[in-house]
């Protein structure tokens, strides 16, 4: 550095100028060794940058009453009354003349390259790598950085859309990330779908992989819970009372129908009465007859004829006319058995009475002779030889009725009247089916 003092009107102005150290300047990527900074020019004889005297090279460098004063790298315009006091010249150290170009040094009769990197005669930043070249050197930035002036600036690779989904820039590098449901491919940039079903997806039953996600589904009889993963049993029995004829039993993932004792399942939902009399699942004796009814069976005496009646066939009793007690009784009684369900809709036709023989010219009427004390039944005559027993009121079981249904025959031509009865045992089952 060289200083000069300028005095004007007893005022001393100190002007400082920086001496450009062209000799010690390292080359840059855009400079050559014959280029100098502004205010200097290259001296091929001394191979140094030499100050330009603008006061000589620039015509009328200072205007008006101003005087041009040259200094290192520039010039000053000062009043003409001003004077310049040169600063003491620095001591000149004799230098050894180097006959080789810059960046080289003599070795014997030849010039060899100076390895500035090895001698640490470079100005590379600590983060930069010095790379020697013939007559010069360069400062190289690490991967992921670019050189701006003398500094290394991080390259934002994410600007170039290297990643398919998300890019995360880090100093000197970058990383790609994928959205949930995807994972990085082998090139570390693309994203491929993840099959969560093969990686332990939390589905409790079925898992279906889709692009970027997955779906949980349930087996028949289950429904997906609020969390989208768990499968909860569907209580089908709570949806309808008509799923089963008797009773619905909910089970995990399904339901089943059950029937009461004395019934068996017909298909999957209906209940069918078991005919214990046909299957042999009864305990009637040899003197009894097994009568199948809804849900159970009944053992009745094989001979149900009561005095004065006598048995003439398996289910028919006759009152002999020679017995005085038979005069006011039906001539014959036929035994029949039937069963009906509880709470049957009414009125309901339940049993048809049919005359087996009719005398010519006879008129027949039908009535309930006995057994209907509460008026639960009535007779509807169809024609001269048949009538229908009708259930008049809904009844509940288990319950048993024994009705004597009488047919009275009147023949006015012969002045003859007779009657016969059908003794009908009606068993009301405990269930409404």
Task: Give an overview in words.
Among the domains are: 113-153, Ribbon (Laminin); 156-193, Laminin (Ribbon), CATH 2.10.25; 196-233, Ribbon (Laminin); 236-273, Laminin (Ribbon), CATH 2.10.25; 310-428, Sandwich (Immunoglobulin-like), CATH 2.60.40.60. Helix content is 3%, strand content 45%. It has three helices and 36 strands. It has helices at 54-57, 116-119, 276-279; strands at residues 2-8, 11-17, 40-43, 48-51, 66-71, 74-79, 83-86, 104-107, 110-113, 129-133, 136-140, 145-148, 151-154, 166-170, 173-177, 182-184, 191-193, 206-210, 213-217, 222-224, 231-233, 247-251, 254-258, 263-266, 270-273, 288-293, 296-301, 310-313, 316-318, 332-340, 348-354, 363-370, 377-381, 386-391, 399-411, 416-428. β22 and β23 (254-258) form a beta hairpin. The chain starts with a strand and ends in a 5-residue tail after the last strand. It is found in: Secreted, Extracellular space, Extracellular matrix. One of its GO terms (molecular function) is calcium ion binding.
In brief:
InterPro entries: cEGF (IPR026823), EGF (IPR000742), EGF-like_Ca-bd_dom (IPR001881), EGF-type_Asp/Asn_hydroxyl_site (IPR000152), EGF_Ca-bd_CS (IPR018097), Fibulin_C (IPR055088), Growth_fac_rcpt_cys_sf (IPR009030), Nephronectin_domain (IPR052235). The chain is 3% helix and 45% strand. With 433 residues, the chain is mainly beta.
Task: List the defining traits of the structure above.
433 residues; mainly beta; Laminin; six-stranded mixed beta sheet; three-stranded antiparallel beta sheet; 3 helices; 3% helix; 45% strand; disordered N terminus
């Amino acid at each position: 550095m060289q200083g000069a003092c300028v005095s004007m009107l007893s005022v001393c102005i100190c002007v400082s100028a920086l001496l450009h150290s062209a000799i010690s300047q390292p080359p840059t990527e855009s400079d050559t060794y014959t280029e100098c900074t502004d205010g200097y020019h290259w001296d091929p004889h001394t191979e140094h940058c030499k100050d330009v005297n603008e006061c000589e090279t620039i015509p009328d460098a200072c205007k008006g009453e101003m005087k041009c004063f040259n200094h290192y790298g520039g010039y000053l315009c000062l009043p003409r009354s001003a004077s310049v006091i040169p600063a003491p010249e620095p001591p000149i150290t004799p230098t050894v003349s180097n006959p080789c170009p810059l960046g080289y040094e003599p070795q014997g009769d030849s010039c060899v390259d100076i390895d500035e990197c090895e001698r640490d005669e470079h100005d590379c930043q600590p983060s930069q790598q010095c790379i020697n070249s013939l007559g010069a050197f360069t400062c190289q930035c690490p991967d992921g950085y670019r050189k701006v002036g003398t500094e290394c600036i991080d390259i934002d690779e994410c600007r170039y859309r290297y990643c398919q989904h998300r890019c995360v820039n880090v100093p000197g590098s970058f990383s790609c990330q994928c959205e949930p449901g995807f994972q990085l491919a082998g090139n570390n940039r693309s994203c491929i779908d993840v099959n969560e079903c093969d990686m332990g997806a939390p589905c409790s039953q079925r898992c279906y992989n889709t692009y970027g996600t997955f779906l949980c589904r349930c087996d028949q009889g289950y429904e997906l819970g609020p969390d989208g993963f768990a499968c909860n049993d569907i209580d089908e029995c709570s949806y309808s009372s008509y799923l089963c004829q008797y009773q619905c039993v909910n089970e995990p993932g399904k339901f089943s129908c059950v029937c009461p004792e004395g019934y068996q399942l017909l298909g999957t939902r209906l209940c069918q009465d078991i005919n214990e009399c046909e299957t042999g699942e009864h305990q009637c004796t040899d003197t009894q007859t097994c009568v199948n009814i809804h849900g159970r069976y009944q053992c009745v005496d094989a001979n149900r004829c009561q005095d004065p009646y006598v048995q003439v066939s398996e289910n028919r009793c006759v009152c002999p006319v020679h017995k005085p007690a038979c005069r006011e009784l039906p001539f014959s009684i036929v035994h029949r058995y039937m069963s009906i369900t509880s709470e049957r809709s009414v009125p309901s036709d339940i049993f048809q009475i049919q005359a087996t023989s009719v005398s010519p010219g006879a008129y027949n009427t039908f009535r309930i002779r006995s057994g209907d004390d509460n008026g639960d039944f009535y007779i509807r005559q169809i024609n001269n030889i048949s009538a229908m027993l009708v259930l008049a009121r809904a009844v509940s079981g288990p319950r048993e009725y024994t009705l004597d249904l009488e047919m009275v025959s009147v023949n006015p031509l012969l002045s003859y009247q007779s009657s016969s009865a059908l003794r009908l045992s009606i068993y009301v089952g405990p269930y409404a089916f």
